[in-house]
Structure formats: C-alpha cells, structure tokens
Design goal:
Layout (H helix, E strand, L loop, with lengths): L8 H19 L4 E2 L1 H8 L3 H9 L11 E2 H11 L6 E6 L3 H8 L1 H5 L2 E8 L8 E2 L2 E5 L3 H8 L3 E4 L3 H13 L4 E4 L12 E4 L2 H12 L2
Parallel strand pairs: 3-4, 3-7, 4-6, 7-8, 8-9
Antiparallel strand pairs: 1-2, 5-6
Helix pairs in contact: 1-4, 2-3
Length: 208
C-alpha cells in the first residue's frame, strides 16, 4: 500500500463489510470466491469491490478468483484486526452493559478491557466480567491496559469532559454514542453513532 495515497473513509467502511462476510464464508468452509460472489453476498458492486482492493495492492488470481482465507487475513491486517484490539468503555448503563455482553466484539478481535463510570453507585460494581472503575482513573488504568480505542456511552453533559480524559490517557479513536459533537485534537478520530438520525432517515423512506 502506498502510504501517500489517502484511502477514502467509505472504502474503509466497505472493507469492514467484506471482512465480516469473509469470516462468515470461512465458518461455512467456503474456500474461493469471485467479485461477483462478493456482490451477491454484500450488495456492494463487484467493480467497486475491485477498486477498493486496488488501494492496497494486488489480490486474487485471474480465472481463479480469491482465496477466502488469504483475503480475510489480508483485509484483517489492513484494518489492524489481525490481533486483539483492547477497548475502553465509558458509561456503565444499559447500552454499555449490552455492548460488553455482545459476543460479536470478541469474535472480531475487539475486547473491552476496562469499564468506567462517574456514578458512585456503579463504581465498584460488576458489569459482566469487568469491575466498573472511577472515570477519574482512566489515565492510570490505561497505562496498564494500553487501549487506543474507546466507546463512549455517557450523557451529552458528560461527554466532552470524559473525552478530554480519554485523549489524555492516550486514546486515539473514539466511537461516540452520546448525542453531541466532541472536540478533539487532529490526531484523534471520532466516529458518531446516532440512532435518532438513522431512524429519521428510515422514517422518511416510509413516506416515499
């Protein structure tokens, strides 16, 4: 991969879709596939699939297609999910509990290694197999946990102050479920997850 080429975010999003689909194929003992199979399985145009891969070098063999295992491994390496990625979670409420208990995270190499909250009633309690820690201990705890990814499931009133703590603790990317914009340094990436926004889009299509 040429490091001077900036890979578009939609391409990275589609790579995640391909990788998940390839994992499913491996589970079903599928050994090879074509770009047409990718289109059928993911809904993403075959030509778009080939273009997305072209950012990262040559893949597949003419007339044979792609080896499922090899392609899965290469995409996992590109996305840095070929090894376990430790994740911090801040916000030990219902959504946070659901995320920690979701088995798909570990299956795809994301492991929530620390849970934090500001509520004294939750600090010290058990959330699945994790002890909920005081949010003020994030930096101290992450010196040992060494996470670079965080998930934020806190009320909007607390989101920015918690984000500042995460950045200070060495977090580089944040998945934000709080319904507010976060201000971070250029070196930190935030991805927003807004259920209401997605539901309003779906609601619009009901009337179409």
């Amino acid at each position: 991969m040429n490091r001077e080429i900036k890979v578009p975010m939609p391409t990275l999003e589609r790579l995640g879709t391909y990788w998940k689909y390839l994992n499913e194929l491996e589970d079903n003992y599928v050994e090879t596939l074509s770009s047409a199979n990718i289109e059928t399985g993911t809904g993403i145009n075959a030509a778009q699939f080939r273009k997305d891969l072209s950012y990262f070098g040559e893949f597949g063999r003419p007339g044979i297609g792609y080896n499922v295992h090899d392609l899965q491994k290469r995409i996992a390496h590109i996305l840095k999910v070929d090894k376990v990625q430790p994740v911090l979670l801040v916000g030990a409420g219902n959504l946070g509990s659901a995320l920690i208990g979701y088995p798909g995270l570990k299956r795809f190499h994301f492991h929530i290694v620390g849970a934090f909250d500001i509520d004294d009633k939750k600090i010290g309690s058990k959330l699945w197999d994790l002890d909920v820690m005081d949010v003020r201990r994030i930096k101290e705890a992450n010196e040992e946990l060494e996470a670079k990814i965080a998930i934020l499931t806190v009320p909007p009133s607390a989101a920015q102050s918690v984000t500042d703590r995460l950045v200070d603790a060495g977090i580089k990317v944040i998945l934000n479920f709080a319904p507010c914009a976060l201000h971070v340094p250029e070196s930190v990436l935030v991805r927003e997850v807004c259920f209401i926004q997605e539901l309003t889009v779906l609601s619009y299509h009901l009337s179409s």
